[in-house]
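Box 3.1 A note on notation
Throughout this textbook, protein chains are presented in two layers. The first layer is the amino acid sequence; the second is a token string describing backbone geometry. Keep the layers aligned when reading.
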Amino acid sequence: MFLRFALPPTLLLLSFDHFLPKTYHNLSSYLGSLEDKYLPVVAEKHDTAKAHTAMTWGRIRDATEDGRATLGSGVENAVHRAQDATGLKFTEALGWGKGVSDKALVAAKEIVEQAKEVEQKVEHVVEERLAEVTHQVEEQVEKVEEKKDTEIKRLV
């Protein structure tokens, strides 16, 4: 009988924030100011309860994240063990990165091959240019030596 009378007003108050957020905020701040003015001990207890609720909620969130990480690693280990025991490819069926890594490996091999081709072309161009520069330097050295010989003959 008590639930029959208490449940509708309780649900109304709980849904108030969702359906009328501005009214809820205004009413909440008004009642909070009255509480601070006339019942400071109760206001202090409410503030303490709010702080404890926030801390508890944070601990629950952290515990949930840790539980998910532990459960995820446990499932991953179980799948790998089952895959090793049966020879079936569960990780590929679940799409756990093997296909992606194969595509990345093929792309990386293509890039390495292209880099080797470019390296060979650059080496060929460098060798040709080195030969040209060497030939030009040798010609310049010969000209300088001829001038030197001519100047020595003039002095003598």
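The chain has a mean pLDDT of 88. The longest helix spans residues 98-155.
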